[in-house]
Design goal:
The chain is mainly beta. The chain has one domain. The chain is 5% helix and 50% strand. The chain has 1 helix and 5 strands. The strands form 2 sheets. Strands 2-1-5 form a 3-stranded mixed beta sheet. Strands 3-4 form a two-stranded antiparallel ribbon. Strand 3 and strand 4 form a beta hairpin. The protein starts with a strand and ends with a helix.
């Protein structure tokens, strides 16, 4: 099994198309990678005049792969940034401050 340890940063904003705060980008950074050994259940494939062996991760669905070939992603931390209103000033709703300073995301504040 290969395990990827990942940090995520979500950027939210509000705009004329959607007044409720919504994600505009998600940045993911791989912090660590933990590899295991070789495939425990390799496949034999006949190609032209020879037989080739390949790892089960290349042909088998995830549930049928051996434990060394599966990829697992663990999200270590998730951070959020709210950029505020990004649109013409004359269309700014009353509930979004005019200084447009980044604050805690309203969506993550609601989840607490």
């Amino acid at each position: 099994m290969t395990t990827f340890i990942v940090d995520e940063h979500h950027v939210f904003h509000s705009c004329p198309a959607n007044l409720t705060p919504h994600v505009i980008t998600i940045h993911r950074r791989i912090v660590d990678t933990v590899h295991t050994g070789r495939c425990l259940a390799p496949f034999s494939i006949e190609q032209a005049d020879r037989i080739v062996t390949a790892d089960c991760r290349r042909y088998a669905p995830f549930d049928d792969q051996c434990r060394n070939c599966r990829h697992v992603i663990n999200v270590r931390t998730v951070t959020s940034e709210f950029r505020g209103w990004e649109g013409p000033e004359n269309t700014r709703p009353d509930n979004i401050p005019a200084d447009n300073t980044p604050t805690q995301c309203p969506a993550s504040r609601d989840a607490e």
